[in-house]
Design a protein that fits this description.
298 residues
Length: 298
């Protein structure tokens, strides 16, 4: 199992952090500064409130153009798939539950992911993902001791692609948090929506989930995300989606940076195959050794 540790990486950065990030507003390279402490505290307050923090305009406009170009250059490697899934990424009816239940409510997921092995260490996107200053800022915002770049060879650094007419329907994440940078927004649709804390480790929250799956809006928050914004999101307990991109819109592209609290973490075989259409020997080996951290459906 290969471990990638962003806190001890010996990579020589190809892109200067100051060219990628607005360090005047967000001095992530100066952890002892008042500006750093202020940015961290603002993110912590947002995360404590509802599990979602938005770092507005973190990425410089010039760097954003580079990130967009890198995604477009790699878009041919995207694994697109259209499935009908329940919020737990299951596709089959479960006779242990009634039909009118989240486990047996299936909605369209139509989107794609550029896999981790499409990127290289010359990319600005990769430099931003692996920058130890960014990793430290994220760990401090999440109030955890340290973070490591996700060791999964496909799901560490990815990009989510929503072409016209596509949507990423209501679901939960298997990891505790996700970090996303919106790179290209849709003209119409493609909105990130979530229901904070709709479930917890002791309560699946089925009734409220079903209400939302049937079109209910109680508790639904719609974010005003703009290109260059970085989002820290606790998606394990908050139902969330990206709404359908209009058929006459430009695509929506978002870079996804995956981190873990422990080094050497590899994703689950079933979810990896759903998102990327394939698994690698590393996934199969990790599956044999996996220990669940909770008893949620998924």
């Amino acid at each position: 199992m290969t471990t990638v540790d962003a806190t001890t990486s010996d990579r020589t950065p190809t892109h200067r952090l100051s060219d990628l990030i607005d360090l005047d507003t967000y001095p992530v390279d100066q952890p002892e500064s008042d500006g750093y402490r202020s940015a961290v505290e603002a993110a912590r307050q947002q995360l404590r409130a509802d599990g979602c923090a938005i770092i507005k305009d973190l990425v410089r406009p010039e760097a954003l153009k580079v990130l967009s170009r890198e995604i477009i250059e790699r878009k041919s490697t995207t694994h697109f798939s259209t499935q009908t899934i329940n919020p737990y990424f299951h596709t089959d009816h479960n006779p242990d539950y009634p039909d009118n239940h989240p486990v047996n409510t299936f909605l369209e997921r139509s989107s794609g992911f550029i896999p981790g092995d499409s990127w290289d260490d010359q990319c600005a996107t990769d430099a931003l993902f692996r920058a130890p200053e960014v990793t430290r800022f994220l760990a401090d915002s999440l109030e955890i001791p340290e973070l490591h770049c996700y060791a999964d060879p496909l799901a560490g650094l990815t990009a989510n692609i929503l072409d016209p007419g596509q949507q990423f329907t209501w679901h939960f994440d298997t990891n505790d948090f996700a970090v996303t940078v919106l790179v290209d927004e849709a003209d119409d649709g493609g909105l990130f929506e979530y229901v904070p804390g709709i479930r917890n480790a002791d309560d699946e929250g089925f009734d409220h989930i079903q209400h939302v799956l049937e079109g209910g809006r109680d508790g639904v928050v719609t974010l005003d995300l703009r290109p260059g914004d970085l989002q820290i999101f606790r998606g394990r307990y908050s139902l969330h989606r990206v709404s359908r991109v209009a058929t006459d819109s430009v695509p929506r592209h978002a870079a996804i940076f995956a981190y873990t609290e422990q080094p050497g973490v590899i994703g689950r075989v079933v979810r990896t195959r759903q998102l990327f259409g394939r698994v690698l020997p590393e996934h199969e080996a990790a599956e044999r050794e996996r220990v669940r951290s909770d008893q949620l459906i998924d």
